[in-house]
Amino acid sequence: MTGTNTETQKTIPASVAMLRVLESWGVDHVFGYPGGSFNSTMRALTVEQDRLKYIQVRHEQVGALAAAADAKLTGKIGAAFGSAGPGATNLLTGLYDAKEDHAPVLALVGQVPSTNMNYNYFQEFNENPMFDDVSVYNRLVMTPESLPYVVDKAIREAYKHKGVAVVIIPNNFGYVEIPDTPYSSSSPTDRKQVAGPVATDEEVDQFLAMVKDAKRPVIHVGRGIKDGGDKLVELSKKLQIPIVMTGLAKGLVPDSYEGNLGMANRAASKAADEIMAVSDLVIAIGADFPFANLIYRTHDFKFVQIDNDEAQFGRHHFLDFGIWSDATTLVEKVVARSQAAAPSPFFKAAVADMKNWQAYLDALTNRPSDPLEFEPIYKEINRIADPDAVFSIDVGDNIINSFRHLHLTPKNKWVISALFASMGSGVPGALAGQLSYPDRQVFNIAGDGAFSMVMQDLITEKKYLLPIINIITSNASLNFIKSEQDDLPMDYSGIFIEDQDFAMIAQAMGVESITVRSSKELPAAFDKALEVTKAGRPFLIDAKITDKRSIPVEELELTIKDGKLTESISASYDASRPTGKEYSVADFFAEYDGQSLKTLPELFAENGVKL
After folding, report:
1. Are 427 and 451 in contact (CB under 8 A)?
2. Using one digit for the tens of pLDDT, what is the confidence trace for 390-406?
3. Which residues are catalytic?
4. Domains and CATH numbers, the chain
5. Which residue has the higher pLDDT, 5 or 161?
6. Residue 49 gets which letter from DSSP?
7. 3-state secondary structure (DSSP) of residue 103
8. Do the beta carbons of residue 256 and residue 362 sit within 8 Å?
9. Residue 6 — very low, low, confident or very high, per pLDDT cuts 50/70/90?
C-alpha cells in the first residue's frame, strides 16, 4: 500500500496558488479595488507583489475597462476584480465592453464567506445570474482546492471564446492551505500561430470575375486584415479598387495611401460616404460593421464577404458570394492570380474626392482659432507623437475627430470602446496602455463629459507615476448627442453640462496641467506636456473649445437615375430649419467652411466616369 506523507507535503494558501496561475499565463498586473469579501486575495497580492503588480483604481468600472483595453491592445488576457455587492455590479460596464469587442478578460469577484452564504449576510447576493449574459464562463468556486483550477479553466475559456470569464470566490476559501502542486495548464502550445482557412483558386477566380463585371467596386476592410495592409494596398492599386475602412481598421492601411478613403457613416470622411453610396460591388474583408443597416441599405449592390469565421456570413447584408478565408491570405492569392486592371476613371474620381476632402481638413487644422476649435489640437498631437505612440480615445466627438485628424500607422497602438461605446473609457485605456507598454508614449484623448465620469482615476496615473498625456476637449456640452438632436424635431435636452476647471482639479491631485483657450497657446502647452511626461510624470491639457458641429457628411445623399448622378442633403438635416427652407449641397458645405469641397457629380464629370 502506498500513500502520501501528509506531514511533509508542502502547502500554499489557495489564493496564492490562484495568483500563480495568473502569472503562468503571463499576467503581470491586475486592476481592482479592495473590499472585505476580497481580503484573502488582497493578502495573496501582497505575497506575490514581486511577480504580479496590483493596480489600485478608484472605481471598479475603471478596472474592468482597463482590463478590456489591456486585452485589446496586447492580445493577452486582461484581469480585474471587485468585491461582493457593489464591487461586483460596478464591474459590468467594463466587462460588457470586453464582450462586445471580443477581448479576453478575467473578472475575479468577491463573495461572502461560504459559512455565511444563504444567511442574508452583509453584501451577499446571488452574483452568478448577473454575469450570465456578459460571460463565456461563469463559476462560483465550491472548494478551496478547486480555486486555482477554476481560474485556470476560466483563462482558457476566455482565450478560446475571446470573451469574459468570471470566477466568484467565497472569501474564506483563499486562506485555506492546499497542496502546493502545479495548477496551471498553460503551455507553449497555447502560443502557436494557428493558420486560418484559405480560399480556393476557384473562389478567387469567381471573385475576380465579379470585380471585372463591376463598374464601381469598393473594398470595405476591417481589422481582420491585421498585418496585411500593405498587401491590400497592392491589390487596390492593381485592380483599381478604392478602400473604405471600418473604424477599428484605422492605421492598418496607411492614411497616406491615395486610395484609402477613410471611414464611412458618421465618424467618416466625405469621400468614403459618397463612394459607398454609389458602389455596385461592396467587398467586405475581415469587417465587423455595426452600422451596416445605415450604409448597406441605401441602394442595391452586389455583396462579397471574406471572413475567417463562417458564422459571420450574411450578418450585415445578404450574400452574393462568401469566401471563408483568412483576410490577408485571400488578398495575397487575389494579387497572385489577377491581371492588372486598366486605369479606372472611377478610381481616379475616388482619389480626387479624398484629396479634396483632405485639403479641406488641412485648412481647418492649420487656421488660427480664438476661441479654440478642435482641429488645431490634433495638429499638435500629430506633431509631438512618437511613431509608436499609444492612443486611448474616449467616446464622443473625439471618435469622429480622431478618425479624421489623428495620424496612425501600423506602428501605433490605439484603443476605443467600439461596439459598446462606453463613455469614460479614455483614462482606463491609457492606464492599460502605459502599464503594458511602459517604454512608449501614451495619450488619453477625452471630452469633458466622458472624462468627468472617471476623472477620479487621474490620481491612479499620479500614484503609479504613469507619464500619460491627458487631453481634455472641454466645451460644456455633450456635443455628440447635441449633433444628433440638431436633426430631430426637438429642442436641446440634457446636453449642456456645467463647465469645470480640469486643470485646477488635476493640480489638486498632484498632476501638472495647463488650460488653453486659443490655437496660439497650443504649441507651448504641448511642449510642456512633452517635458513633464519625459520626466516620468502625467500631464493634463484642458483645451477649452467651442461646441461647433463637425461637418456631418452622413447627411449627403446620392442617387443614380437614368444614367445621371445627383447629390442632395437629407430631409432630416437641421430639423429646426424654417418651414420651406431647403439646403443645396453648396449651402451645406458653406455652413461648415467647406466652400472648397466639390460634389461627387462634379468629380465624376472631371474624371470622365461613365454611369
Report:
1. yes
2. 999 999 999 999 999 99
3. 60, 122-123, 266, 395, 480-481, 484
4. 11-179 (3.40.50.970), 201-353 (3.40.50.1220), 370-544 (3.40.50.970), 553-607 (no CATH)
5. 161
6. T
7. coil
8. no
9. low
Pairing verdict, β 512-516 and 539-544? parallel
What average pLDDT does this structure show over 331-346? 96
Q: What is the largest CA-CA distance in the chain?
A: 97
Beta partners for residue 445, in sequence order: 393, 471
245 neighbors 228 (Cβ within 8 angstroms): no
First-to-last CA distance in the chain?
Answer: 89
Q: Which residues of 265-300 are buried (b: 16+ CB within 10 A; e: fewer)?
A: bbbbbbbbbbbbbbbbbbbbbbbbbebbeebbeeee
Are the C-beta atoms of residues 296 and 274 closer than 8 Å to each other? no
Residue 565, amino acid: L
Confirm if 440 and 448 have CB atoms less than 8 A apart: no
Name the nearest CA neighbour of 537 among 442, 429, 415: 442
Q: Report d(CA 169, CA 453) in Å as an integer.
A: 29
* Distance (Å, whole) CA 20 – CA 49: 11
Q: Please check whether residue 60 is in contact with residue 8, taking contact to mean a CB–CB distance below 8 angstroms.
A: no
Tell me the three-class secondary structure of 545-600, residue by residue.
ECCCCCCCHHHEEEEEECCEEEEEECCCCCCCCCCCCCCCHHHHHHHCCCCCCCCH
Does the predicted model carry a pTM greater than 0.90? yes
Omega cis (within 30) before 371: yes
Q: Among 475, 489, 603, 496, which Cα is nearest to 550's?
A: 475
Radius of gyration over alpha carbons of the chain, in Å?
Answer: 26
Question: What's the pLDDT at 5?
Answer: 54
| Cα separation, 263 vs 485, whole angstroms | 23
To 10 degrees, what angle do helices 229-239 and 327-337 make? Answer: 30
pLDDT one-digit tens code per residue, 455-477:
999 999 999 999 999 999 999 99
Confidence check: pLDDT of 16 > 90? yes
Closest-CA residue to 541 (of 442, 474, 463) = 474
CA torsion angle 453 456 459 460 (round to 10): -60
